[in-house]
Write a structure and sequence with these properties.
Elements lengths: L6 E5 L4 H12 L4 E6 L3 H13 L3 E6 L5 H10 L4 E4 L14 H22 L8 E7 L10 H21 L5 E7 L13 H11 L8 H11 L11 E4 L8
Parallel strand pairs: 1-2, 1-4, 2-3, 4-5, 5-6, 6-7
Helix pairs in contact: 1-7, 3-4, 4-5
Length: 245
Amino acid sequence: MNFDGASVLVTGGSRGIGKAIALRFAELGAKRVAIGYLRNDKAAEETAEELRAAGAEPLLLRGNVSSERVAQEAAELGPFDVLVHNAATGVIEPALETQDKHWDWTLNANARALLSLTRACAPQMPEGSSVVGVSSLGSIRVLENYVLVGVSKAALEALVRYLAVELAPRGIRANAVSAGVVETGALEHFPNRDEMISSGLERTPAGRLVEPRDVAEAVCFLCSPAAEMVRGQTLIVDGGFSLLA
């Protein structure tokens, strides 16, 4: 895979999976890598330094990914050859303990933001560009306390299918990557974190948990010419975890 001279935007790109994606594009030759983040300036600056060391020009995009301002600033930073919506948030509670405002916050950030960013950036994206959404197994499996995030990821995957069809005349592809259990800081928000990790290790045929780099490799593949005929698909990267009954 080669992304020499490419411009890339990765939301949620300062830490965890997003950081791994941003750095992998830089390693593969991307010239400009923009990373979106909410408020952790220190993490963003540290990632920016690593991007420079990898040979890419870092661009920082701070703010709520679902805001009109961030979408507009993203468009102004473009044009991009790759748009990756990795940023995710959500309220981890049982369905009956959630509130409407929790629904709005989670769906806006995890799903609608991809539509807003695509509307803003796609008109400038050149032919051969790619849009990728980062999903999770909660989109098709029922996970404990995951109802809002799971529904938002299902919406994300549905949106990717629509975008794949509607963006095709522009020469832009859209796909998603669904990751299994990945041990990042995001797991700290789950009350059953330790159980998730131990269960993941026990149930995964590959014999280990998914690592951020695994997800990054899948994203880069979907954005490469080798995936030209992959459109509107969700590539599951879970080491076989979801195969077992």
